[in-house]
């Protein structure tokens, strides 16, 4: 199996193809606004904060890849990448939609890339192949946290296909 095919499988498993963990799109489909902002303790991140964090890094990579660095998200530090927009139901829906959109745009870029494109450096980043590999692992880690938070709230039970 070539690196591109492997990365496409990893990328899909983070969003919409079930593998060893449930994909984020499926996990989030029934998460209510109240569940999205809930925290078991103040020192933990909410589901929505975690999605904002994932979106920050994926959107930054997309903008850098497209050469649109003026549109990339900005943060003072990693902690501020978890920051929420105004806490409204509409903003929660928009955050989910934007995450799915950005994730799929990166998937399209990967799918269209030739072998040499995978290893070309992206301004401010490493190569596409290294960044997407790292982001897939990063996503999987935080998807696990999101799954845990949904289970703590009594959601997601029985949604696995195995």
Automatic annotation (TrEMBL):
<dbReference type="InterPro" id="IPR034660">
    <property type="entry name" value="DinB/YfiT-like"/>
</dbReference>
<dbReference type="InterPro" id="IPR024775">
    <property type="entry name" value="DinB-like"/>
</dbReference>
<protein>
    <recommendedName>
        <fullName>DinB-like domain-containing protein</fullName>
    </recommendedName>
</protein>
<dbReference type="Pfam" id="PF12867">
    <property type="entry name" value="DinB_2"/>
</dbReference>
<feature type="domain" description="DinB-like">
    <location>
        <begin position="24"/>
        <end position="146"/>
    </location>
</feature>
